[in-house]
Design goal:
Blueprint lengths: L7 H12 L5 H11 L3 H75 L1 H9 L10 H23 E2 L13 E10 L6 E10 L2 E7 L7 E8 L4 E5 L8 E6 L2 E6 L3 H35 L10 H4 L15 H4 L1 H10 L3 H15 L6 H24 L14 H9 L3 H21 L7 H26 L7 H23 L6 H15 L10 H32 L5 E3 L3 H13 L14 E5 H19 L6 H25 L3 H30 L4 H15 L9
Parallel strand pairs: 1-5
Antiparallel strand pairs: 2-3, 2-8, 3-4, 4-5, 6-7, 7-8, 9-10
């Protein structure tokens, strides 16, 4: 059986040679070059080394893969062990505080029972008093030294003497150098020096030009301070967070030992502060409680006595899932398990309910609220337009639903609509502008109205229980429609397309807009309001073109009959006039290919009827007067020209021909225009009726010098 290139006797010898401790690559290559017979030997040796390299890489991959699960389990066990050790340390510290509190309470009880004994104990040396706890002995022994240290502190820190007045009970507990980091971007901000006193925490910044001197930065009372351990995430390690509503700050210690000391001493100092404050309040209330209530003989006083207030309901926070809740939330956020994070928050809220907020519950709430803020920031980033816009509106459902569960429906609605607006804008920009305007408008309408319909359906699904958000969607739809109309108008109206093309494009947009009625959304009035200005401009521009063309033809009018030369041309003209509604046009055609009308009148008729048909496709109520006034102006140009020619022409034959053209205009064209306008609009046009009546007066007295105005 053939051996692989990297195996066999030669492969084993080569492996041992390469693995030896004294292997020198240069000497090995030199010796190999001297011993080889030619290029072929070197190529074979190179293949053996390459095969050995690949075999070694595969072996390493297999080893890593086999141990990967063990690595993960070991890391998880280490994390659990660290959490349990921290929890054990926390419990021991609490037990120590409870024992000290019990000892002090026993001493106070003994003093109340035997005042003489209390006086002798107060006069005695505290170092020799065996009933004082160990921490009290140390405090009594070092009280004078702490006062001196506090005085030195006030001299080193600029600007804190007025904010931190000396008092007999204030002393320094712990201090040290820290590095502050930005809470959002984890960037280093500055070096600080923190001074922990028995009732507050002072943070001071370094003065660069004065060694050992500091400048006051902030002072935080211990009552409103929460301390959170930040898990190590290299290179960010040895950090802890301080929460002071409404802000938070992150500090990094020099090493893990100093970080642990800071965490322990902060917790212990806070606990001692709370205990001393509780004892002080008890001592203040003691004289009033010692006085017996005066006896009364009024039998009604007993009925008016109120029951004592119920005791605060205690909340058990020692459950394992509550202890691990902050860390579990961090893991869920890091792994993008948003549903799991919100489920944990719902579970906590259900467990706590409306119970009285004790100090431990407040501390837990502070830790959880910080995680809620981080989770909200991540969800907001998921919905930001900077993220990928692919996947349609359904891609945002996950983040939106979790924000709604967190009670932030308004923010979820705002971010969802911003995301969809960016998606629609991007889709419109990516459309390729084709040479044919109508083809581009078809694509534009399909992309925009499909996106709008999908967004509306997804919005209805996500915010079904939040009816207050629907007004925001209507506002968004109006702004999106404005974006669509801008692209539409730029392509249709700004490029000076013909009125027929503009009418077809507007018709396509209206038909697509009607698709929204499937979900009960009608935005037709919005598209009318946004297009009315451009359509008015198009109608007036095309009206001016017709008027100029009519005037130009009038200036060259010879009042001669039309000769179409061929029967085919005559048949085509008849078909065109019949499509315009001129059913009586045949009576104006003569023998062969002659038409008993002027070329100017026929051209005016076709152009006017084409303008009316295209304008009716664009019609909506806001355009009524614009369309009517444009029609009246166009008709007046032809009527006035016929009136003027009839009064000025001296040739009787031509005068009879002009009357025949006038009869065609007044008795055929104007009634058809009036009828077609009424059919398209739905109501008669008073101005057109008045124009026809004025023309009738002119025909009664054709020799008059007046003209229609």
């Amino acid at each position: 059986m053939a051996l692989p290139l990297g195996e066999g006797v030669g492969g084993s010898r080569l492996r041992r040679q390469l693995e030896s401790g004294g292997f020198a690559a240069a000497e090995y290559v030199k010796q190999l070059s001297q011993q080889s017979d030619g290029d072929r030997d070197l190529q074979e040796h190179r293949q053996r080394i390459q095969a050995l390299s690949e075999e070694t890489a595969q072996s390493l991959k297999r080893n890593v893969y086999q141990n990967y699960r063990q690595f993960i389990e070991t890391a998880r066990e280490i994390s659990y062990l660290e959490s349990e050790m921290y929890q054990l340390s926390h419990i021991l510290t609490e037990q120590k505080g409870i024992m000290e509190a019990v000892t002090q309470a026993l001493l106070l009880q003994a003093d109340r029972d035997d005042p003489a004994l209390g006086a002798r104990r107060a006069a005695a040396d505290p170092h020799s008093n065996p009933f004082l706890p160990l921490s009290a002995k140390e405090a009594a022994a070092s009280e004078e030294g702490r006062q001196r240290t506090l005085t030195t502190l006030l001299e080193k820190v600029e600007g804190c003497r007025d904010l931190l007045p000396e008092s007999p009970g204030k002393y320094l507990v712990y201090n040290g150098d820290l590095v502050e980091y930005d809470a959002d971007h984890m960037a280093q901000i500055q070096r600080v020096h923190a001074f922990l006193m028995n009732d507050c925490l002072l943070v001071a910044t370094w003065l660069p030009n004065r060694r050992g001197a500091y400048r006051y930065d902030a002072l935080y009372p211990l009552e409103g301070l929460a301390v959170i351990n930040v898990k190590d995430n290299p290179p960010m390690k040895d950090m802890f967070k301080l929460l002071m509503f409404p802000e938070s700050r992150i500090f990094q210690a020099e090493n893990a030992k100093i970080k642990k000391e800071w965490l322990e001493v902060l917790e212990e100092t806070k606990r001692n502060r709370a205990l001393s404050e509780k004892l002080r309040l008890e001592q203040e209330a003691l004289p009033r409680a010692a006085l017996p209530p005066p006896e009364t003989t009024n039998p009604f006083d007993q009925e008016d006595e109120k029951e004592p207030p119920p005791e605060e309901e205690t909340v058990d926070l020692s459950l394992e899932w509550i202890q691990e809740l902050p860390e579990d939330l961090d893991v869920c956020i890091a792994q993008r398990d948003f549903e799991g994070a919100v489920d944990l928050l719902d579970k906590l809220n259900e467990y706590l309910g409306y119970k009285t907020l004790s100090q431990p519950v407040r501390e837990l709430r502070a830790k959880v609220d910080e995680r809620v803020r981080q989770l909200t920031d991540v969800l907001v980033f998921e919905l930001s337009p900077d993220r990928s816009l692919r996947g349609g509106p359904r891609a945002t459902r996950r983040a939106v639903s979790q924000l709604i569960r967190l009670g932030q429906s308004t923010k979820a609605c705002e971010l969802f609509l911003k995301n969809r607006a960016a998606a629609v804008h991007t889709a419109i920009r990516q459309l390729r502008i084709e040479g044919a305007t109508l083809l581009y408008i078809h694509k534009l309408c399909h992309v925009f109205f499909t996106s709008l319909l999908e967004t509306a359906r997804e919005f209805e699904t996500d915010f079904a229980g939040n009816s207050g958000c629907y007004s925001a969607f209507i506002v968004w739809a109006r702004s999106a429609m404005r974006m669509f109309v801008d692209a539409f108008s730029k392509q249709v109206f700004d490029s000076k397309e013909s009125l027929s093309t503009a009418a077809e494009c507007v018709k396509v947009a209206k038909e697509h807009c009607k698709q929204l009625s499937e979900i009960g959304l009608d935005l037709t009035f919005i598209i009318h309001a946004l297009l009315v200005k451009d359509i008015k401009g198009a109608l007036q521009s095309y009206k001016d073109i017709i008027i100029e063309a009519t005037k130009h033809r009038n200036s060259e009018e010879m009042w001669r009959r039309m000769n179409l030369m061929t029967p085919e041309a005559l048949g085509k003209l008849r078909e065109e006039m019949r499509s315009c509604g001129m059913s009586s046009f045949d009576q104006y055609t003569g023998d062969d290919c002659w038409v008993n009308l002027s070329y100017t009148v026929v051209a005016f008729t076709k152009q006017t009827m084409a303008f009316l048909e295209e304008a009716l496709k664009l019609y909506f109520p806001e355009l009524h007067m614009v369309l009517l006034e444009s029609l009246v102006e166009i008709i007046l140009v032809a009527v006035q020209h016929v009136d003027y020619s009839l009064r000025c022409e001296q040739d009787l034959e031509k005068k009879a021909f002009i009357r025949q053209n006038a009869s065609f205009l007044y008795e055929t064209v104007l009634p058809v225009v009036e009828k077609r306008f009424e059919e398209g609009v739905g109501k008669p046009a008073k101005q057109l009726q008045e124009l026809r009546n004025a023309s009738r007066l002119m025909r009664v007295n054709p020799e008059s010098t007046t003209s229609v105005v």
